[in-house]
Queue: 4 jobs
Job 1
Amino acid sequence: MAKKSEGGIVETVKTIVWALVIAGVFRTLFFQPFWIPSGSMKDTLLIGDFLFVNKMAYGYSSHSCPFSACPISGRIFAREPERGDVVVFRHPTKNVDFIKRLIGLPGDKIQMVQGVLHINGEPVQLADAGTFAEVKAPQGPQQLMPRCENDPVGIGGTCLKARQTETLPNGVSHDILNISDNWVADDTPVFTVPEGQYFFMGDNRDNSEDSRFPAAAGGLGFVPAEYLIGRADRVMFSSAGKSLFYFWTWRPDRFFKAID
């Protein structure tokens, strides 16, 4: 009887190990789960959105594995990202995963002028898209408080941000939010994107740590190609509460929502 018991334990351990191996291979090669922790990509992505990152989109690098442990130099099976893609990448200096929109390709000249994005000397097309409204209350596990264009707003009040639809030179359109007309990154120098690197920005333009802040000053700066992890294509579900397991706080309008 003891031998049967021991055999059962061994088989259970084997099953768990194989399940972990299969899950690790799936996460490394195909799709990686990602939970949105901040509001830098509103209103495209909300705090609490849960999505899977397509890791086949751009090929693989050392950062494709957990803890950047893949024994890969550069990128293999590399595919070039497209302007306007929403991309998950490893921050080059902070060793954490970020998600932003790809704005600048190698060789591009990027500049913000009075809050308007300019690519290669030309302003992007903008169209009014009304107002983005949300409740002024702590959000997500970090209990982050949203910034509002109409501040001061009391807890429980309606937090507003101006919304515009921005169209990039390749025809990709997406919404952006504006909180202030004189934010520190509303006017920038011209950034020339080096070969093999990319320029990223958040859609919540006045609440995003992105490539407008140079790496030398502690910001993101340009992101080398080998730090790309994958493309975000679709929100699977979204939780408005402190945890994704609080199913009673799930947002019913965001199930399987495509990411534009």
Job 2
Amino acid sequence: MGNLQMSIISEQRARLISATPSRSLRYLPATAFIADLAIISACAAVAVLGRKELRFFDSPADVSADVAMVGPFIVAGWLFTLFLYGAYERSVFGAGTDEFKRVTNASLVAAALVGVGCYITNVDLSRGFFVLAFGLALPFLLIGRGVQRRALHSARRRGVLRHRVLIAGSPSHIDEIAGVLRRESWLGYQVVGCLTPAYDLTEETRLGVPVLGNSDEATSVVLASGADIIFFAGGALGSANQMRKVVWDLEHHDVQVVVAPSVTDISSERVRVRPVGGLPLMHIDPPAWSDASRWGKRLFDFAGSLGLILAFSPLMLIAAIQIKLFDRGPVLFRQTRIGKDGAEFSCLKFRTMVTNAEELLAKLHAEQGYENGLFKMKDDPRITRPGKLLRRLSLDELPQLFNVLRGEMSLVGPRPPLPIEVASYAADTARRLHVRPGMTGLWQVSGRSDLSWSEAIRLDLYYVDNWSMVQDLSILAKTFGAVFSSRGAY
């Protein structure tokens, strides 16, 4: 059996080393450039046509002649500014906000340069055209980058357009990074192997990452495996001089060196890298859970819930009538949940199950092998006919808007837990109770009931530690897509 395992590992190593990385990645900047060129040119043409209808600046004269003279310089200058700001560097594609920041800053600088240039050269460029061209092109450039990113993420989930990655470090650190990269497949990192210290004699890590060599052989193994990126995790090298030597050895090859510190689930807003005496120090700001409890978020919750109650009141009335007519039972289902700082409250939902649902719960627990966490199952026999539609569209949770209005819940936050769940919480899991539970959250837009218990907890803790108002707005926007797709809703 041992010889068979060694043979399988050897074949796997040979296959990994002989494979080649995705060459299509080099075309990402060119694709973005062509898309930007098309968007800017199209918006310039629309601005010429729309200028004739504008009455706010000058007379509706034909500006085609002036634009024909300066238009190509504007388009070329705009694209050149995007290039100077690094909007076409391969490292900005796929994740983070850096790409959008660079496009926005470069576009604003291009607009300023055009305005100043026309003033200095005394070119009589139409103000209407200027406003329309830059006012239209900037949002469409951002939308275009967003569409390209979604297409890239979709391709990476299908296993294409990926970076080949080697991870160097101790086995435990390697598995931490490999676990994150495998979970977040949209990042496009395909872990092809790892490098461990010379004293480590294992053939593969606990997660099954094959060991291709020792950390001090990093340069030769990277080149032999055709890796695009090498991650250096904790325990990889014994000194900074070794790291510097590897960087020097790889500087003439198309290989990116990444140092992965031993921290996970930290948002970029909390991380500051400050070089001191040539030593890059990572500063991590304190968790932001206290900010999520302040008056600004509460005011947003109050105004938002009140507006949504008014907007959805006809829909809630129809749902209440259907529930009542079905079996004459109560319209609302009240369940004790745990809120901020462990306070109990009565969570409101439209009743979607038969009136004796709690009596049938023990039997279902035994049949499904339930152990802990929130119990949910597909095709639950306790769900009523009107309840199926309400659950699929998450309309059963609309009464929780009144919980938000009363301050017991928030529009966005961790899922409100049951008392039996809280009783089994470990110390780190209890951090979920630092903020008000939410009607929606990262768990809702990331799979809902399809998530494992541990993954749902991880997302809730990430939200608590990295709260921001921008993240709340993003989650609310994504909630509509999650609700209408009905993914994970049952």
Job 3
Amino acid sequence: MDRRNVDTDAIFPKQYGRSTARSGYGPVLFDNWRYLDPGDLGSDHALRRPNPDFVLNQPALRGATVLLAGDNFGCGSSREHAVWALRDYGFRAVVAPGFGDIFRGNCALNGVAPIVLAQNDVRALFDLANAGVLTVAIDVHAGTVTAGPHVFRFALTARQRLLLTQDIDWIGATLSHRERIAAFEAERLARQPWLARMFPS
């Protein structure tokens, strides 16, 4: 998707955001660009006319799990539904030169890797895709995107890697440190025993 500043309303139009369920949004991902006729909550999306010029409707790209995008992808409102729609469609990573800040945080929380590469590296991937190289391997531990003989490097925080590799949310990430939390609480009570009387368990 070689365009800049794709906002969250383009990714997930607001008329579909009337539920807090995290699934069922794949059919309306990029809704306004993906279909020739408008849709709403009552639409049977299987019967709508796909836009043959839209990139995700190209036969060779159906079922893609990595989205290559332009700079500032996911800008605009803090609409977590946009990431839910990407995940529900089947995307597990978005590669771009930059993201909207809230969108990037929502990606890791919902099992979609937000991969930031240098502008020149993203352009090289677009050139490879246009030449027919449509398969990449992403290693979130090593921080690499491999396309044929080409290797591009990116960085994730330790928290992002944990969220993505274990497919958990912030609560799950916190609970992964339960032994350290318990040790801290025990040490704190040893130093300040009166807290046990103030805040009995």
Job 4
Amino acid sequence: MTVFRIVVLFVLAALAEIGGAWLIWQAVKEDRGWIFAVLGVMALGAYGFIAALQPDANFGRVLASYGGIFIAGSLAWGIIVDGFKPTVWDWVGSSVALVGAAIVILAPTASSTASEAVA
């Protein structure tokens, strides 16, 4: 259940952050109006709260892991929403970032390894 929760929270955080940034981009770069910027700021604020719901208490670990999710999610957003055509290097880089994110967030920590050794 914990891995499922981690994945769901990362997906929701990615949607909020990438969507929020995209809305602000639309307001500034595409002259879509201030309402896009306001909605973007709200989505970015929601991202902060969603990220804080991760079960890991270490801000640095959660945010570092999210970096990999952000890379892959941004490319996916570009493909789905903007018609972006990724190169093979985009796919490779995104895959490496996701593997790195999984290693950081799912690897046992020193405290969990010590507690497992005692049990």
